[in-house]
Design brief:
The chain is an all-alpha fold and 168 residues long. It folds into 2 domains: 67 residues; 82 residues. Helices cover 81% and strands 0% of the residues. It has 6 helices and no strands. The two termini are 26 Å apart.
C-alpha cells in the first residue's frame, strides 16, 4: 500500500465527519507523509496501522471531545438494522418463558392478596375499603407492568448499542 492508496482508504472511513474535521484529518495525515518523504512511506504506514483502525480511533476521539464540549455528537451511519431487530426479537422470545410466568404469578399474587383482604373487610362490613384496596391493587399492578416494560426497554437499548456481533 502506498500513500495515495492509504489516504484514499482513510478518506472512505472518515466520510462520516463534518467537512471541516474531515479536511483537518486528511491534511494532518498528508503532512505526516510529507515529513517522511517517499522513502519513509512504508514505515509510516506500518507505524500508523490499518486505515480502518486509524479512522475508528480518530472518530472515537472526536466523539469524546464533542461530548466534553457539549457539541452535537457525530453519529456513525447505522447499518444492519435488520440484524439488530432480529437479535432483539430473539432476546424477547428467549426471555418470554421466564418473564411472562413471573409477571402472571406476581399479578395473581397481588389479586389473591386483594381478594383475601377484601373478604376480611367484607366480613367486617366495610365495602368502601374493598374498593380502595382494589384500586390500590390495580395501581400496584400497573406500576409493576411499567417497571417490566422499562426493564425490557433498557435491555433492548443495551443490545442495540452492542450491535449484532456484540460490538459496533
Amino acid at each position: 500500500m502506498n500513500r495515495a492508496q492509504y489516504l484514499k482508504e482513510l478518506s472512505k472511513y472518515l466520510d462520516k465527519l463534518p467537512k471541516a474535521d474531515f479536511d483537518d484529518a486528511i491534511n494532518h495525515f498528508e503532512e505526516c507523509f510529507d515529513e517522511v518523504g517517499v522513502e519513509g512511506e512504508a514505515g509510516l504506514i506500518a507505524e500508523l496501522g490499518q486505515p480502518r483502525v486509524v479512522a475508528t480511533d480518530l472518530l472515537s476521539n472526536l466523539i469524546v471531545e464533542d461530548k466534553q464540549v457539549d457539541d452535537p455528537v457525530v453519529e456513525p451511519k447505522k447499518n444492519n438494522e435488520f440484524g439488530k431487530i432480529l437479535l432483539i426479537s430473539l432476546l424477547c422470545i428467549l426471555a418470554a418463558p421466564i418473564g411472562l410466568p413471573l409477571t402472571i404469578a406476581f399479578i395473581a399474587l397481588v389479586f389473591a392478596l386483594l381478594i383475601v383482604v377484601g373478604a376480611v373487610i367484607i366480613v367486617m362490613g366495610s365495602g368502601l375499603l374493598v374498593l380502595t384496596l382494589t384500586i390500590l391493587g390495580g395501581a400496584i399492578t400497573y406500576l409493576f407492568v411499567k417497571f417490566l416494560v422499562y426493564c425490557l426497554k433498557r435491555i433492548v437499548a443495551y443490545v442495540s448499542s452492542k450491535g449484532v456481533n456484540g460490538h459496533e
